[in-house]
Amino acid sequence: MGVRMETDPVLRAAIIGCGQIAGACDEWTGPDEIYTHAKAYQLQRATNLVAVADVDERRARAFSARWGHPAPYADVSRMLAVEAPDIVSICTPDETHLAILDLCLDARGLKAVWCEKPLATEADAAEALVVEYERRGIVLAVNYQRRWDALVGRVKAALERGELGTVQKVVVYYSKGIAHNGSHALDLLLDWFGPSSNVQVLGSHLDFTADDPTVDALLRFGNVPVYLIGLDERAYGIFELHLLGTRGRMSLTAFGREMQWHVPQPDPRAPASQELGPPASVTHDNHQRPALAAALEDIIAAIHCGQQVRSSGRSALATLKICRHLALQAAEGRIPTTSR
User: Fold this and answer.
1) From its phi and psi, is residue 182 left (phi > 0), alpha (psi between -120 and 50) or beta?
2) Does residue 6 fall inside a structural domain?
3) Does the model's pTM come out above 0.85?
4) Which domain holds residue 55?
5) Is 316 contained in some domain?
6) Is the CB of residue 140 less than 8 Å from the CB of residue 313?
7) Based on the structure, what is the number of domains in the chain?
8) Cα 304 to Cα 14, 135, 179, 257, distances in angstroms
9) Do 328 and 199 share a domain, yes or no?
10) How far apart are alpha carbons 63 and 115 in whole angstroms?
11) Tens digit of pLDDT for each residue in 221-270?
């Protein structure tokens, strides 16, 4: 696996934050599965993971031992100064992203930042940083990884070919915060249908942090009405999108790992009518190219060729603004916010 040309130098990579998405989610996966930044770097011949940092030095050292012994640090500033990485992954809690993005701006020789979603928790400050990254020519990719996912890409392609007919409604089920998890759906809807409008918040609850409610809402993306339904992560986690068109229903279920396609068929009880039948096809992502591998290849291509990454700071900023609008409506008391 790799996109390196013989004339391209191997890019020095560093990871800030040594938790789940950084590497722990790949502790028990198969050799070709990639769910973390560390494994993406490890399997990509165009990159070399040279350093990791975490506020917990023992965690950084344990992470280093697991992932090929990159230099461990407890101080991010020192790591950036000593190691001068070409690519930095930010895998820290959501509320820390802004400060670390700001810190990375002045890192010597930095070519790209691969930041976990959401981009930040404050839209105005995030916008200023996006502008500055663009001004300095530093690639800023945000890990809305479903934009690189082959199975999700098939949904986008089906929409572009008109296979669903006219999309009448979209229903989203999610949990654990509108920004932390719900933003995955909002980001895809922006990509598929265009800007949002007519936002109406219907309710919310807290199952993640006080600043990131899980919101129920009705809004439009382009001309498509979208219903967001937030469920309580403490009962179970969920992420599903159901697109209902005039030619059938396409669903992403199992956190986006399964795609179901339902087509209309004659209703046996009323032959003049049609109903949606059982899934005409169910596609699993068992043999799909890992999304994080595709994301890293996209970042490397952006460094060498100047192309735009599929999920950029600019696109993630648009998603963040919707999330903040929804959260602020809840906070301002326009609808009840309950803690269950």
Assistant:
1) alpha
2) no
3) yes
4) 11-143+291-310
5) no
6) yes
7) 2
8) 18, 17, 31, 31
9) yes
10) 19
11) 999 999 999 999 999 999 999 999 999 999 999 999 899 999 999 988 88
